[in-house]
Amino acid sequence: MQNPKLRGLLLGFSSTNARANALFDSLLLLLPNSSSSSLNARFCLPKRRRFCGYAAEQFSDDEYECDFESHKLFIPEEATPYDHHLQGNTFRFKSSLQATMRFCTLSVSEDDVSSKKLETSPIHSKAPQKPIDFTKVDINLLPTVMIIGRPNVGKSALFNRLIRRREALVFNTPDDHVTRDIREGLAKLGDLRFKVLDSAGLETEATSGSILSRTASMTANVLARTQFAIFLIDVRSGLHPLDQEVGKWLRRNAPGINPIVAMNKSESLHNDTNSFAEAAIEAQILGFGEPIAISAETGLGVTALYEALRPMLVDYMVKVLDDNGGEDENSDQNSDSCKVDESKLPLQLAIVGRPNVGKSTLLNTLLQEDRVLVGPEAGLTRDSVRAEFQYQGRTVYLVDTAGWLQRADRQKGPASLSVMQSRRNLMRAHVVALVLNAEEIAQASRSMTHAEVVIARRALEEGRGLVVIVNKMDLLKGKRNSAIYKKVKEAVPHEIQMVIPQVTGIPVVFISALEGRGRAAVMHQVIDTYEKWCLRLSTARLNRWLRKVMSRHSWKDNSAQTKIKYLTQVKARPPTFVAFVSGKAQLSDTYIRFLTKSLKEDFDLGGIPIRIMQRVVPRTAGGSSSKSGQPIDKVVERIPSDKRTVIDY
Length: 649
Hints:
Blueprint: H1 4-14, H2 17-29, E1 41-42, E2 65-67, E3 72-74, H3 83-88, E4 93-96, E5 102-104, E6 144-148, H4 155-163, E7 183-189, E8 192-198, H5 211-223, E9 228-234, H6 241-253, E10 260-264, H7 273-283, E11 292-293, H8 302-324, H9 331-337, E12 347-352, H10 359-367, E13 385-391, E14 394-400, H11 414-428, E15 431-437, H12 438-444, H13 450-461, E16 465-471, H14 482-499, E17 508-510, H15 519-533, H16 539-551, E18 564-571, E19 576-582, H17 589-603, E20 611-617
Parallel strand pairs: 1-2, 6-8, 6-9, 9-10, 10-11, 12-14, 12-15, 15-16, 16-17, 19-20
Antiparallel strand pairs: 2-3, 4-5, 7-8, 13-14, 18-19
């Protein structure tokens, strides 16, 4: 090192001779004349501490000034040929972990105070003239940011932090991988909106054909369609050899993406500035620029992540909106003018079932792409994966859930969390697709196990539409299995109706997801069930139907039977009706089942639950019913007439 005073200053920051030499050599690369240069350096430590090293040492003159407290390096006008070199080699130091979690940056300016100072941004210095409101941009035009890294560095925790919900499973399993599929969500970071992808942990040395190898290839395919990436590392363990392998893998598979290196779990080094500085310098070995310190668990450093992402996302949106000719400005007008009914709204479809029945294969078949990981291993899916696609002009949201386990088979850890997440997604869905295994049905001579019956009944109790899908019908092909094939197709609908008698007409579809057969049939039944689920019937039509039904049905004791004044539908999704009856008598359960069955048969409402409530309309004082037909909570008191007089004898 040429200057001992500068060396002492850098030693006060880096605490080791090797680190000081590395910092000094990197700083000299930015200066045009290192032998005759002078430097005024000040290193800003956290608040309530004094400056360390040589606070304001003058080495020869004031030709160069480096002020790390204001994050600027001033170079004279003669150094303008090196501007491009400075733009490509910005250099940052850690200034205050406890207060700001930011790094000091270098920027170029002239000595003349009256002249304009040019500050070089680490990514882009040109800002758009018109501010962009990300909240009004179409979601299909938003940029995509992918979170990558080795296993167990906190990718799912950062994903949950960005989408502001606990959607991805987070569990401390150093020897196992919780996330195995690509999970997509809408990130909300300040005024920024972008699509964020949570990926599985990468291990480049995984054996061919293993789960880790398949997840790496799937991550590479999705990364090729993304625009930006966040490279997450664990600051507590330092730069791991797997981190360097992931960096090489990233350069090989996505050479056009310059990721943002984020050091997660930095709250552990909250009070140790020197250790954090060493970790930050060590992270620069990856070659992707200066890292930022964050904590996905506590939210520390989210502001620094926002400042790093905003210039890139703004520049990307400017290009996209220019290419689309201001499509986002007309999106609000189109959304206001195009008002559709409830049946045309986006459809939420949840694919549920026991493990290893082909749920993930069915999702890939519906999407017509390898979106989730599939394989012969049981329990491969852990996270509930949500995907969006268009089918015949309709937006459909698919949710692939983890396999439901028996209560005795559940274990504490990711398996139990997966079952809880599957239950939540079942309650959010509009239509539930229950997948059965045709081979197991043929071997066990029964259509549904106890776990599958529980899933179906819970879906109907929650008021969701139900479609039963019998998968793996390709295993029953051939002359030997022709009799079993016909028997399964005939027996399954009949047995399902016997097991679930409360809902009639449940549609059953026989498919082979592996061969891609049955995609159109599945979507036809799902959309048909959804439209029935959203059906609304007018009050006049219902009462005309009610008179016909009551006329063709004979009761044993018509005088004792409760009379229905009128019937009306109060809500859809699922269809809910209210029967207004006169008097204090209630409708019997037999009467309600009769009305429910008649509604399903006459209006073709099979496969969805129907709810019928009753409300009593009390009689008025004169014995006649209320003209308004509305229920009356309080009975009207009888008022004595003036004609009635009391005669005392």
